[in-house]
């Protein structure tokens, strides 16, 4: 039995950003429920619109992977389990030591040490982002669409569908919490905050039909790092590895 009172994993930090939808939002609920739409928008039990925390967390991980890879870190690809749990031959030699986590077997890259993998639990917890506007103040908006045959580049017959979206240009605000658990014990730098903060600023749209203008947004109340934070010197993988090797050689001597 799990006893939450004795659990050692407690949130060390919490941020509460707000996503403001600039166009209309289409986050599908997967099945129709009292709506004419083939893809209704998702609501919570109170009828409020929401953006699932799992969708935001997935986008955050994807952006963090791109940022960390650009900084020279070897990143294990999600959601492929065989690549998230690599063997010795798959891990670059310069990362084998720092990608080991005390108490967990295998190797775990800097992104896996934040978002987890099949062996390592996630440090980050993302709540659903809820729109505070009452459900009775939001009218149902249906947007027609049609399936396109990519080979013939024409509309398919009998393939008209309806999407339910939030009202367009209503500047709806969606607010939720992002929690960060304490770091694992390893030789890797703790890049959680700089990567997550930067990744949030790279998310400009959420939900479906983004290519047709749905789900575009901007953020408010985003967390920041001070310019004198020591983590800045650890972002570049080549520089961090050089410093780490110097410390290791000095300690051995």
Brief overview:
The protein has 253 residues and is an alpha+beta fold.
Features:
globular; alpha+beta; three-stranded antiparallel β-sheet; 253 residues; five-stranded antiparallel β-sheet
Tell me what you see in this structure.
With 253 residues, the chain is of the alpha+beta class. It contains five helices and ten strands; from the N terminus they run βββαααββββββαβα. The chain has helices at residues 53-70, 81-84, 112-115, 192-202, 237-252, and strands spanning 13-15, 18-21, 50-51, 124-126, 129-131, 141-149, 154-165, 173-175, 178-180, 217-220. The chain has a five-stranded antiparallel beta sheet with strand order 3-5-8-2-10. Strands 1-9-4 form a three-stranded antiparallel beta sheet. It has a two-stranded antiparallel ribbon with strand order 6-7. α1 (53-70) packs across α4. The longest helix is centred in the first third of the chain and has 18 residues, at 53-70. The chain is globular and about 65 Å long. The model has no long low-confidence stretch (mean pLDDT 86).
Q: Kindly, what is the distance between the CA atoms of the first and last residues, rounded to a whole number of angstroms?
A: 48 Å
**Structure class:** alpha+beta
Topology as a string of helices (H) and strands (E): EEEHHHEEEEEEHEH
Q: Nearest-angstrom radius of gyration? A: 22 Å
Helix content bin = 10-25%
Could you give the count of β-strands?
10
Mean pLDDT, to the nearest integer, reads 86
């Amino acid at each position: 039995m799990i006893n939450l009172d004795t659990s050692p994993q407690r949130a060390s930090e919490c941020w509460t950003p707000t996503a403001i939808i600039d166009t209309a939002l289409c986050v599908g609920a997967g099945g129709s429920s009292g709506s004419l739409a083939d893809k209704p928008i998702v609501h919570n039990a109170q009828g409020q619109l929401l953006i699932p925390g799992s969708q935001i967390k997935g986008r955050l991980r994807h952006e963090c992977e791109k940022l960390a890879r650009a900084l020279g870190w070897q990143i294990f690809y999600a959601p492929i389990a065989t690549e998230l749990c690599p063997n010795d031959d798959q891990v670059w030699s310069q990362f084998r030591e720092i990608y080991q986590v005390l108490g967990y077997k295998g190797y775990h890259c800097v992104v896996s040490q934040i978002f987890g993998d099949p062996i390592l639990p996630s440090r980050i917890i993302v709540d659903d982002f809820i729109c505070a506007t009452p459900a009775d103040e939001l009218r149902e908006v249906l947007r027609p669409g049609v399936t396109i045959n990519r080979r013939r580049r024409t509309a398919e017959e009998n393939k008209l569908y309806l999407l339910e979206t939030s009202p367009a240009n209503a500047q709806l605000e969606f607010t939720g919490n992002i929690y960060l658990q304490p770091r694992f014990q390893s030789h890797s730098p703790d890049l959680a905050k700089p990567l997550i903060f930067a990744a949030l600023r790279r998310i400009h749209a959420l939900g479906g039909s983004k290519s047709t203008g749905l789900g575009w947004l901007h953020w408010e109340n985003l967390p920041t790092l001070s310019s004198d934070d020591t983590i800045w010197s650890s972002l570049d993988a080549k520089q961090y590895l050089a410093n780490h090797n110097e410390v290791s050689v000095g300690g051995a001597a």
